[in-house]
Fold this protein.
Amino acid sequence: MFKKGRRFTAEFKEEAVRLVLVQGLSISQVARDVGASQTTISKWVAKARLDGYEPPVGESERAELQRLRRENRELKMGQPSYSTRPWACATRRVAQHGAKY
């Protein structure tokens, strides 16, 4: 009546997730290549993302990421953040320049 599901090893799952997240293959392509369903691969990828999967990076990529993160922090420190109050920018403009209707 019911088809008993296949069991996949942890290594098999990790490799399928790596193919999607690191190599950029589509879930459907990976599913065809490894012989699992798209739904199964999708669940593995979603779980990996929730668990904070970090693809391995080389030394040069790691240095570039650190540089970009530092630069991003420095840029953010020099500018006010409007993301928490989107209306703050418009309110400040009206207060500075007066209402122009």
